[in-house]
Structure formats: structure tokens, C-alpha cells
Design a protein that fits this description.
Elements: H1 2-20, H2 29-41, H3 45-49, H4 54-59, H5 62-76, E1 79-85, E2 109-117, E3 121-131, E4 134-144, H6 151-161
Antiparallel strand pairs: 1-2, 2-3, 3-4
Helix pairs in contact: 5-6
């Protein structure tokens, strides 16, 4: 009887221990892209930045990203909604610098979102690639009407992707 009690206690500890181990949630690229915009809509720039792949986060610091998003909010207002658009999306200039070497072209996922702000409507291109069992954003760009692309926003965008020392 004591042996059975010990076995049951060990099983309970094992199950409890397994349940308490938090695994990193694995997201597909669609989910990651949507979570990114949900975070931007909530102005949770740290969470949005957390979805960046290693190469992008090494090139763009959180402070730079936060300043960029603050500038967008000042110029365009809050993100109101986004929709995936079916634009042809081919590889953009500069994107290849951020795709990890071990990732095959079939693994790379590209999206274009039509994003409505309070005072503007722009397109966001996102490029995602697998990293550590989930998809991460490895590159992004913003494009659309030059009416909304103010010099202040263009300057911040250029600063994000300019090569160090350039």
C-alpha cells in the first residue's frame, strides 16, 4: 500500500511539474502578424518589438522603435484597424539583409496590411521567418500616399534601417 502511495505521489509531482513548465507559445506567421498589429493598436510597443527576429532587433533598438511609433502616433494618431490586402508582394530592397541564412525561400512569409490610423491610411509590409520554433518579424516597411509620409516620419523610418556609420 505504501508503494502505491509513493507511486501516486510521484505521478502527481511529475504531472504538476510538467504543467508548471511554461513553453513558449508557437505561432504561425498569420498569428504573429495579427498579434503585432493588436499590440500596436493597444500602444504596447514593447510587446510588438518582442515579435522581432534577432537580426531586426540587433539593427533596431527598442528605443528607436518606440520613438518611431511615438512619431507615427503624433503624426497619424492611433491605429484603428488593419486588414490583410492581396497586393502582389515580392522581395523588397533591403529585406534580404534581414532574412536568416538557414531559412529557405519557401519558409519566408510576406504580408501587406492596409492600416487605418485616426488621420492616415498606410500600408505595412511584414516579412516573417521561423526562429526558435515560431515565426518572427524579420523586416517591415511602410508605404502609401506621400500626403501622409511627413518628413518627420520619413526621417525616423530612414534612421531605423540606415547602416551604422552611414
Amino acid at each position: 500500500m505504501k508503494k502505491l502511495t509513493w507511486v501516486m505521489m510521484a505521478a502527481v509531482f511529475f504531472v504538476t511539474g510538467c504543467a508548471s513548465v511554461q513553453e513558449k507559445p508557437s505561432r504561425n506567421p498569420d498569428q504573429t502578424a495579427q498579434v503585432f498589429f493588436n499590440d500596436l493598436q493597444r500602444s504596447d510597443y514593447a510587446a510588438a518589438y518582442g515579435l522581432f527576429g534577432k537580426g531586426l532587433s540587433q539593427r533596431v533598438s527598442y528605443g528607436q522603435f518606440d520613438q518611431f511609433m511615438q512619431t507615427i502616433r503624433q503624426e497619424w494618431g492611433r491605429v484603428e484597424f488593419n486588414e490583410t490586402e492581396l497586393y502582389p508582394f515580392h522581395q523588397r530592397m533591403g529585406e534580404a539583409d534581414f532574412i536568416p541564412l538557414h531559412v529557405t525561400p519557401r519558409q519566408v512569409k510576406r504580408y501587406t496590411f492596409d492600416v487605418k490610423f485616426e488621420d492616415a491610411q498606410m500600408n505595412f509590409d511584414l516579412t516573417l521567418a521561423p526562429e526558435d520554433g515560431t515565426y518572427k518579424i524579420v523586416w517591415f516597411s511602410i508605404w502609401g500616399s506621400s500626403i501622409y509620409m511627413t518628413p518627420k516620419i520619413q526621417q525616423k523610418l530612414d534612421q531605423l534601417f540606415s547602416k551604422p556609420g552611414a
